[in-house]
From TrEMBL:
This is Cytochrome c-551. InterPro entries: Cyt_c-like_dom, Cyt_c-like_dom_sf, Cyt_c_ID. The keyword Cytoplasm does not apply. Residues 1-22 form the signal peptide. One of its GO terms (molecular function) is iron ion binding. Residues 23-113 form the Cytochrome c domain. It comes from Paraburkholderia ultramafica.
Length: 113
């Protein structure tokens, strides 16, 4: 290993440990699911983009008691748009079927933002 690749290795080790501790603070991100279903294609964590940000969504539903269930359902079978005029595409158009367990995991994570 030459000096610059040693540097690179040290820098990426540092980055990994920073990322890991940031993730441990929040509800940990179900990264594989998020990737597989392309959530971040339209959403971001904190800035509205093609869709409301996950923080806006968490904020909006903070005091709604059955939000978890309603949103899981919506993520799987769809519903009408009520943020803007574009409804979220259904799972087949996002990356494949979404099981109830996966919907539960994803919504728990979104609502923890
Ligand atoms: C193709 C773009 C797109 C993708 C991909 C996408 N969303 Fe969305 N999402 C939207 C739009 C647009 C809205 C706003 C819909 C509305 O007005 O009700 C939305 C709304 C939501 C809401 C709030 C629904 C409500 O009724 O308030 C949640 C929760 C959500 N998305 C989670 C996710 C998760 C989790 C994923 C990945 C599995 C995902 N989204 C992938 C576009 C997308």
């Amino acid at each position: 290993m030459n000096a610059s690749s040693a540097h690179l290795a040290a820098a990426s080790a540092l980055l990994l440990s920073l990322t890991a501790s940031a993730a441990a603070l929040a509800q940990s991100e179900p990264a594989a699911l998020v990737d597989q279903h392309h959530c971040m294609f339209c959403h971001t964590r904190d800035a509205p983009f093609l869709a409301p940000s996950f923080q806006q969504i968490a904020q909006r539903y903070r005091n709604v008691p059955d939000a978890q269930l309603v949103l899981e359902q919506k993520l799987r079978v769809g519903g009408t748009a009520h943020w803007g005029d574009m409804a979220m595409p259904l799972p087949p158009d996002r990356g494949g079927p979404l099981t109830p367990e996966d919907a539960h995991t994803l919504i728990r994570w979104v609502l923890s933002q």
